[in-house]
Amino acid sequence: MSETVKLIYRDKCIELPLIEGAEGELAIDIGKLRQKTGLITFDPGYANTGSCQSAITFMDGERGILRYRGYSIEELAEKSIFTETAYLLIHGALPTRRELNHFSVLLNDNSLIHEDMQAFFQNFPRASHPMGILASMVTALRSFYPAYSITNEEELNLIVARLMSKIRTMAAMSYKISKGHKVIYPRPDLTYCANFLNMMFDNPVKPYRIDDTLVEALNVFWVLHADHEQNCSTSTVRMVGSGKVNIYAAISAGISALWGPLHGGANQSVIEMLMDIQKNGGDVQKAVMRAKDKNDPFRLMGFGHRVYKTYDPRAKIMKRMCDKVLRKLKISDPLLDIALKLEEIALQDSYFIDHNLYPNVDFYSGIVLRAMGIPTNMFTVMFAIGRLPGWIAQWKESLDDPKWRLSRPRQIYIGNTVQKYIPIDEREVAGQS
Ligand code: CMC
Predict the structure, then answer these.
(1) Catalytic pick among 362, 400, 401, 425
(2) Is the minimum distance from the CB of 299 to ligand 1 under 6 angstroms?
(3) Which residue among 340, 372, 404 closes a domain?
(4) Alpha carbon distances (Å) from 220 to 4, 79, 287, 310, 368
(5) CB of 286 closer than 6 A to ligand 1?
(6) What residue owns the CA closest to ligand 1's atom 32?
(7) Which residue range(s) make up the domain with 358?
(8) Least packed by Cβ within 10 Å: which of 111, 164, 197, 208?
(9) How far is residue 410's CA from residue 416's CA, in Å, rounded to a whole number?
(10) Which CATH number characterizes residue 221's domain?
(11) pLDDT, tens digit, for every residue of 362-396?
């Protein structure tokens, strides 16, 4: 018989089953709790709630471990290319050479977007945030590519290729249009990462020279961002998807969720924070003092994580990449010096030590993106392109899960008890008797 836990409540005692994960983590299955006791659980921010069983990504926040389908993030960042990692996440196994080649052909074949969609880009106000544009355009894909079904691997490959390729093209296109420049189309001879850089920076009068180190940096950036189990945007994709909405709407909801500065938007906020510190004379100590002050809403952006209570393993890799890129390009970025100083001071400060606050992936990624020439307001779009395989894999897993139901949490109501309706002419005006 499997293990249970006893819940004693007033004069009742019920047993609830324990579920054990592949890495030994335990959860209480409360699926029958309300039916047996009338009780619900209360867990704001879901910090103690497992929303699903998943075989995609494993995280151990105490030991700083991240694995996709059992493969360590360190090994994937060093050896894998982004399209292969995407395939691994979505299909559950590394592709053979033939499977990866076939996937690359599909990515190439689906890399153009319908020419009519360009008109949409032209009509957004020039100052629009690219995340808002991307979320709208992804929803619009549904109107341009309405028919799809996912009943076999080939159909899954097609929808994945369509999303991954078109979103990358749309991101680069929105940048070009925002600059008032000619749109650059994808090229069949370039890899996924090189193609993106070329679409962003090639120009009819100044051809872009593709730098291998930048391609490698972008590849590592996207591999590191490809999935992160049940974070805010992924949970959003699963939740929106649970209503059986089409995949474009679910992914668009994920993009909107990612936008916030506590989540994917942190990479933009980190650079803005470092620039502010630079503008104010580089006083790093002052930023640390502000972050500790409970009367000041300021937080050190790029620090802290809901799950990691140690150094984010992705941040370690990103920091090394940052050094490599700046050395290769012979750039000395003053923001890197500020970031290094900030990290050094924060990691010795008792507030950060006691709160287990360490740099997360966003702390160094902005410096790498800046070196590539990516504008700050596009940073979160870069994160979104990277997270796409994870969203698709998690969405697909939820559809295939026989236990998956419409997401519908409950609440503890704290408003008025029953009120009698008073006709408008009989209501007292506040302050008049
Ligand atoms: N600077 C200063 N204090 C902090 C910070 C920070 N960056 N992060 C958390 N704290 C403090 C917070 O004030 C609270 O203190 P106390 O218990 O004394 O009131 C305590 O730590 C716990 O904070 P919390 O907000 O309850 O923790 P959380 O697990 O809900 O928050 C977080 C996680 C990522 C939202 C938070 O650490 C944060 O706001 N960090 C800055 C934004 C950021 O870098 N986000 C990117 C996350 S990684 C990318 C991704 O996966 O999305």
Answers:
(1) 362
(2) yes
(3) 372
(4) 43, 9, 30, 21, 11
(5) no
(6) 305
(7) 266-372
(8) 208
(9) 18
(10) 1.10.580.10
(11) 999 999 999 999 999 999 999 999 999 999 999 99
